[in-house]
Structure formats: structure tokens, C-alpha cells
Amino acid sequence: MTRGALRALGLGAAFAVFVLDQLVKWIVVGPLDLINLGSIHLLPFFDLRFTRNYGVSLGMFTASSAEMRFGLVAVTALIASGVLVWLWLEKARWDVFGLGLVLGGALGNIRDRLTVGFVIDYADFHIGEWRPFLIFNLADVAITIGVLILLARSLLSREKPASGNPVPTETN
Known about the structure:
Elements: H1 3-29, H2 34-37, E1 39-43, E2 46-53, H3 66-89, H4 93-116, E3 119-125, H5 138-156
Helix pairs in contact: 1-4, 3-4, 4-5
């Protein structure tokens, strides 16, 4: 792929994640009125449950004031900027795609913080009363999948010697 096509792939993935994330959040708070309903039981292991997330990953670093909220926005915007630069310079297609997922998810959650003061979470996966995850949203899923793609690529794409060239060995 050309550099321009790679960038289009990454930015397209980011745009798609951002739009889908915001659309689902609009449906959750608008037509479904999950704020007032509280929750909707969908499957024995999955509910829609409205939650205001004032923190970041796993509810850590809860922003209890406007200053802390803008601090979280600034830090996450700085990280998203770094991801954008990495995406812009990256040459591997799957890495660009993973970075696009991370960027789109980050931008969706940043927009929530700026417009409503918290991140809208709604996806409640559970096994009986046990919840292996906190309540999350589509942006969180995209960020997680993007990071997993990047981790898998870094672990599985080690440099291999060219065929016919033996691997040099150490001699004493």
C-alpha cells in the first residue's frame, strides 16, 4: 500500500469508530432513554446499563472537579496526538489499522468529556452477578482491539532471516 492509502486506512478506521461510537451513545441516551430506564436486559449475560464514567481505564483517576476533567481531556488528547503521529509515520497496514481504532475510540471518549462532562458507558457484560469488566462502550472496545492488534503484531512479527542466508552463530 502507498503511504497515502495507509493513512486513509487509519484515518478511515478512526472516523468510522468515532461516528459509530457517537451514534450508539446518542441512541442510548436519546431514543432508548437509558438515563431514565437505568438498564435494559438483552441477554442472560449482557445488559444495556447507563453509567457516567468520570475516570479513565478501569475507572481510575476519577475527575471530581472541572479542573481534573480538563486535565484528563488534556492528557488523553496528548496521547491521541501521539497515536496520530505514529499512525501517520507507520508503514505496516495492520499497525495503522490498530492505531486508527485506538485513535477513533480516544476521540469518542474525549468528545464525551468535553460535551457532557463524563464518558457515557452502557455495555454491561456479566456472568450471573459476576462482572469481569466494568461497564464499557464501543470506543473502549475499539481501543482494546486496537491495542491487542498492536501487541500481537509486535510479538508475532519478529525479523526473520532472508531465505538462503544462515543465521549467524557465535563462535568462541
